What we know:
A: mainly alpha, 0% strand, disordered N terminus, B: mainly alpha
Amino acid sequence: MDNGSYVEPKIDAELSRLFAEDRRAPSAERLDQTLAEMKRGLRPVHPLAGSLALRVFAAFLVLALGAVMTLGVNGWDRLSGSQQALVLLGLIAGAGAGSLWLAWEMIPGSLRRFQGAAVMAGIGVALLAGFALVFPWQVPDQFTAMGWWCAKRGLIASAASAVVLGLLVRRGAMLSGARCGAAVGSIAGLVGVTVLQFKCMHQDALHVVVWHLGVFLVSGLVGAGVGALWARLRA
Amino acid sequence: MALLDASGVAPVPTLDREERLRRLMVRYQHADPTAVEELVRSVSPMLLRFLSYGSVREGEAEDLLQDCWLRVHRARHTYRSSEPVLPWIFAIARHTRLDGYRRRKRVAREIGMTELPERPAPAGEPSGPGELERLLDQLPEGQKQVLVMLKVAGMTLEEVARATESTAGAIKQKAHRAYVRLRELLAERDRSGQR
Lengths: 235, 195
């Protein structure tokens, strides 16, 4: 069978013979019952709009810019050119990959060019490495107290963004609640990181890696948990 | 036009079959009841077989099939007419199967059993796994699903990748491993003189 599948002719022929012997078919009663259910109240539906990934990315931009303009940009001016470039590149790459991932999760049978969770994790690791290399190392006073203050703000921005993104996602099929939730959480986490990178005055490597990137990690994990729970409650 | 040929195996996917399914889905989205009927009746045999393989009890496969179609119905707005239909349907079927497995495990745990007991087969139907089931049962779940989609539904590697939320490269690897394993199993079977 030459349909682009892996072909070993002898095995293929034997498999075809075995599959052909399986003549299972659904019972007429069950099919009629299913059809009756499907036809009950059948009404036209509007297919999901195209360019779903672009819409998700646009939502990220609106949320991130809105949050930054609301909370301020005190921290941004403290960054050097290379630091600003790293932050922008990481956030845009992350939001882009996350938007594609979320769009694929919303539409069954989507062609996936990469594994979403793996790429988002990779972007997280790349940001971690970038921050560690490009940002100065020092342990500030009140590392935990200041850091926790920062993280809370980032998590609030992330949670609010997740609610908005969740409304967008509701129209999708969401076959895997955990993966959908992780995608939403990751993108929302990046909104939180954006807010902190623009606002926070403590732009040293340890603080940024632990408290800013931590928002991204926590948001992704919490998103996965919430998504899984929601799917289980809905089932 | 039947989606399975006279021998019960999906023929090489043709533009006609894809186009026919695509048009049925579009009419379904426009609430055409005859399109619903035609779609369900033509795709159900291959769906039932996909949902049946593995540790699925007698009769449960039809429950899963009905569940699958109701999920298809709720998600019908997510189908886009530029995309192939079978990967869309089988992606939903795959999750239906997974949810069914998790439900069985949960029920078994709640009643303190490691496995649910077999339901007795309806009168007149053979019980116990056939040769194909025995072969497939020795493959990991992922490889089993890939094989069934390739052989029963006649999907291409890319379509199977879409349905399994994977990449074409990963599916090709899975199919390769499945065939390698099957080669060993069939050789064992031949050596033991079962044929």
